[in-house]
Design goal:
The complex is a heterotetramer, with 2 copies of chain A and 2 copies of chain B. By secondary structure, chain A is an alpha/beta fold. Chain A is built from 10 helices and 14 strands. Chain A has 2 domains: 111 residues, Rossmann fold (3-Layer(aba) Sandwich); 150 residues, 3-Layer(aba) Sandwich (Rossmann fold), CATH 3.40.50.261. Chain B starts with a helix and ends in a 15-residue tail after the last helix. The chains are: A alpha/beta, B alpha+beta.
């Protein structure tokens, strides 16, 4: 069993004719992902990396229904593309672009929730069901099957950590990039719940950052409900204070958002916290 | 992008909120002139830093002469290191009550959220949570009158206050949505004899939405170097240490800084070249860092959307075009790492596979450099694994 | 409320759609003047009736003289019984293709719906369903670009047409939503050398939303009596038969008319006093009907939110103040029917319990009256059950 | 078993302090309806017909949760009141007002659907579960328990017909007023589906009108799926043609909307059609 996606997931690539879109379509196919179609308005009829291109998502779905989508369109067009994917019936969409405006993201999330669609990102590397299906742009070779579920707010840091796991003979079940923006479709808790019910996952690595209160919320959930060991790393111990949203940010976050607060909350919830990314494999081996 | 108070107030006024009568001035003489017109006034530094009041950046003045003196005094200040050249001179309000009102984006509920309290003013962060109404707004519905009525009930607002908020809050919400705001905060929202008046205004516009608001001013809080980096599409923050750091991705960049500290070094900067930086952008990033004369450079790339060969080519280009005379420690992994390593090897640079090793190396190089040694420059590559 | 073509076009223009250059005129001389300015023109009667073209209400004119003659001819027409006093004189368009575009409300899907076809023009109603795209718009989302792209694909629109519709359709949708329209229809939407131009405009605004659009003109399609009834809050339509009918509720009023026909009579009108009509409104309704000099009056009230005693009181008031000299058949049932019957009994009027009986009685009374008899007036009550 | 509402349904009255609101609150209570609260902004703390009044629906729900609401507010305020009822958690709302604008109704319906709330009306007399619960303003005495389910677009015509049934000894299970507007929350099919699964309902009376295509849609459903006899009456045989929505109306309705079309579609679906309202009891007795 896998969570979110597996070897049967049919994937549609929005923005397939762009540089990123075409390059990573090839990479995904190389990984084994079933890419069934691509969309690029005005370029219907073309073929990219062996994949047929359509003018609209509806046209693509008429030709061959897809389950999940990945979006490589420039940020200003991402809202419309995401709306289209949701309206046309995709059940999961990975929003790759950086710099999608906050209000656009809020609108995408609201529409997706209404239609029961899972949104990964925005500003994410995507997600991968190791050895089965990759929807994203992470480097293929580090994502080999194994018992570790990974959830990360950051991209490259996640590769770093998964690369370390691989070097230590630890494979991954599913790796989910939540995305680095202030508002994202999935949060730690959503994915932790999925991992809790996934027999393929024996332990979870949570890769956090300073800012926001996602790690504290995750800690609360772990303390109350998580049935599997969790190892965490939080980046930003020495980072300069980020921009705060006036008093409002302070009121919402109260004492959360700091490095110390996050580490404290996670430790209190029974999470093993690594001080360096390189310590994670050892911590995992102790609990698996 | 944060807006200055006077700009925020202008926007509030456009959305039908009452603001104090006032004038933006740049000299003590103009301040006196404004005070002559407005009567008793408050003189406020127009600076983006917080705690202006506690740092002396706000003063009351009963007469034009006093306004002139206070303006002169304030204009000579630097507040939290920020210089400024404008003052807002405003009528002094007769305040019966201070409310707090804000609209911001809540990551947890993924929607706009209203914060409202009858206990506004300087100490709002100390007001207990139960005295502040927290109301997430269903973005598909927008702010509806029933929500305002319910917010008012929960605040404990009087019928008269509720009547005013029923007009004011929907305007504020429209501003928030129309202008892609991340934050609209009015503290205090002053109850005066002529109704609710925005005595302060903190408005932040989402940088990622600025492209659709060409009519808004552009305000930069950054240093010249940060500004230059921003124009190149680089996320750059000066930190003042010895080791210049380039990495790709905010998370791994932070982790790299943490690790530099962990191994006893000090980072000169945070520089995230972002996802998918090509040869051009990476080269610019490197040149930018070299301008800051660091003791060592640490390049930590784990390629996904970024390709290691592009990073390597950028290094070679900068080295050939401008020369690199500081020691460099490089780590490359991920997409096209083999190609990248080969290129750097050809350029005489050994490349680490592990982040820990590269960081330790950079810390060592910087220490040697600080001690006057030239060992470990790009010319004489360190021993990698 | 239907808008005249020239008003509709003005609104389209405000929402950035192209419309033909043109002038609204009221005399043949003005029409000639406009034609002198515009060149070859089309002269169009500004009347709310349909099929203007087929009824001679639209004419082309190559010269000012021809425009003058056609204007004179058209101004002398009555189209489907409607007089009018304005003509729209417009440039004659060079039309390459005629599209059809409409936005209306679909009761079935409970949302706005877009209808679009490449086969616009006079015979749109005969175009097969599969040539007309039907797209319900999720009202929480509004009209998004992806919808327009998909509509264009389904229409079979060319890339160039799609490019224009991507700008035009969102404007049309905004108009539809901003102005509470029930219908915005452009047929034909003409493809000309300067792009898509709205060659006609049918816009209907929801009467129930007019209160929030004070800036819109007020247009009345009704007869004086219908207008007067409307001002009283009564739904009134003249039908030209013998029996004046008052009932409460559109459904039962229609059923009453059906029954009058069924029993061989002809209704003079449709008059629904609506739900919860009080004494005042009911009395006004009765007075209005009496003004039309019917052969008989049929009152059919089944009270829910309307109270039978109010209806009875209204009858008594009108009878006492103005007198009632036509025969009246009354049926009262429902809320406070006992009180209502008692009041009418005291006033000397028998009341039926069943609708069928009251209608049969009314038909009989009208026939007697038509035959010159005065039996059955309100003064000499008919025998009820 | 009853559909939509029953003797346990807790009812909230919005606009309870107005003339209509207070009068019909008393009538509903007299019928046996459990009216647990009323709402009227600025009048919280008052008591109307023994029912406590609150400033907001949220306040009422805090004091005593309600299941269903009835709305007597003036049309311009109906959208906001309906939104509030939906947001605060009511599961069914009856919108009594006439003249709610079409766009407001569309917005109410969209929000209600999103939240899974049943909207009865607008421009309806409400609905009644005979002998159990009345949410509306129809005269109490005609609504006595029995085997006939009634669905009507018109109000008074429905009383007329139900009154006839009562006079002929035929009671009703549930009577639903769809409302007389062009857009309504419930349509014939929704209620027919409920009646199909309601053991208390033996036959259904459908009261239609000319205009729109609701009767034709109902006929299609009845032909395909209805498991109980249906008797119909359609008003408007002799009515003048109503206003048509341009060509668009004709395109949407095609050959539907006319009296003859509706009668034809219903007859074809096996529905017994009455020519006069007074014929309905006999038609029902033949099928019950």
């Amino acid at each position: 069993m896998a969570i979110y996606i597996d070897e049967n997931t049919r994937v549609l690539v929005q923005g397939i004719t762009g540089n990123q879109g075409s390059f990573h379509t090839a990479q995904m196919i190389a990984y084994g992902t079933r890419v069934v179609g691509g969309v690029s308005p005005g370029k219907g009829g073309q073929v990219v990396e062996g994949v047929p291109v359509y003018d609209t998502v509806f046209a693509a779905m008429e030709a061959e229904p897809a389950d999940a989508g990945i979006l490589f369109t420039p940020a200003p067009y991402a809202r419309d593309a995401a709306f289209e994917a949701i309206a046309a019936g995709l059940k999961l969409i990975a929003l790759i672009p950086e710099h999608i405006s906050l209000h656009d993201t809020m609108e995408i999330c609201a529409y997706a929730r209404r239609k029961g669609v899972v949104v990964v990102g925005p500003n994410t590397f995507g997600l991968v069901s190791s050895g089965r299906c990759k929807i994203g742009f992470m480097p293929n070779r580090y994502f080999v099957p194994g018992p570790v579920g990974v959830i990360s707010r950051s991209g490259t840091l996640c590769y770093e950590i998964v690369g370390n796991l691989t070097n230590h003979g630890l494979g991954t079940s599913t790796v989910v990039g939540l995305g680095g923006d202030r508002v994202t479709g999935l949060n730690f808790i959503d994915v932790l719940q999925e991992f809790a019910g996934d027999p393929d996952t024996g332990a979870v690595v949570l890769v956090g950052e300073i800012g926001g209160s996602a790690e504290e919320e995750a800690a609360r959930y772990i303390a109350a409900s998580m049935n599997k060991p969790v190892v965490a790393y939080v980046a930003g111990k020495s980072a300069p204070p980020g921009k705060r949203m006036g008093h409002a940010g302070a009121i919402i976050e109260r004492d959360r958002g700091t490095f110390a607060g996050k580490i404290g909350a996670l430790r209190e919830a029974g999470v093993k916290v690594a001080e360096l990314p390189s310590q994670i494999p050892a911590l995992l081996k102790a609990v698996l | 992008m944060k807006l200055y108070e006077y700009m925020g107030k202008k926007l509030l006024h456009r959305y039908d909120l009452q603001i104090p009568r006032g004038k933006v001035v740049e000299t003590p003489a103009q301040a006196a002139e404004a005070a002559a017109e407005l009567g008793e006034v408050v003189v406020k530094s127009q600076v983006l830093a917080g705690k202006r009041g506690k740092s002396g950046g706000i003063a009351f003045a009963a007469t034009p002469g006093e306004a002139r003196r206070e303006a002169a005094r304030i204009l000579a200040l630097k507040l939290q290191g920020q210089a400024f050249d404008k003052l807002l001179v405003e009528e002094k309000l007769t305040i019966e009550q201070e409310l707090y009102l804000a609209l911001t984006v809540d990551g947890l509920s993924r929607c706009p959220v209203i914060l409202a309290s009858l206990d506004g003013g300087m100490d709002i962060e100390d007001v207990p949570a139960e005295r502040i109404v927290f109301w997430p707004v269903d973005i598909n519905l927008g702010l509806q009158p029933f929500m305002v009525r319910e917010i008012c009930r929960r605040m404990g607002a009087s019928f008269e206050l509720a009547r005013q908020l029923l007009v004011l809050l929907p305007g504020l919400y429209r501003l928030f949505r129309d202008l892609d705001a991340e934050l609209v905060e009015i503290n205090p929202l002053a109850l005066t004899p002529r109704g609710l008046v925005a005595a302060d205004a903190k408005i932040t516009i989402d940088d990622d939405a600025l492209y659709r608001h060409p009519q808004l001013p552009r305000i930069h809080e950054k240093t010249d170097l940060e500004l230059k980096a921003g124009e190149m599409g680089l996320a750059y923050v000066e930190l003042g240490g010895e080791i210049a750091v380039i990495a790709n991705g905010a998370g791994i960049t932070m982790a790299t800084l943490d690790m530099v500290h962990h191994y006893g070094g000090t980072p000169a900067n945070f520089l995230d070249i972002g996802g998918g930086a090509g040869v051009e952008r990476t080269a610019q990033a490197l040149e930018l860092l070299l301008e800051t004369k660091p003791k060592a450079v640490l390049i930590n790339i784990f390629g996904g959307i970024t390709r290691c060969d592009d990073v390597a080519k950028a290094f070679v280009r900068v080295k050939e075009n401008k020369g690199i005379d500081v020691p460099v420690a490089v780590r490359l992994g991920g997409t096209n790492e083999t190609e990248g390593r080969a290129i750097l090897k050809k350029a005489g640079l050994e490349v680490f596979l592990s982040m820990d090793e590269a960081v330790r190396q950079a810390v060592g190089l910087a220490r040697e450099r600080a001690n006057g040694s030239t060992v470990g420059s790009a010319e004489t590559a360190p021993q990698g694994e």
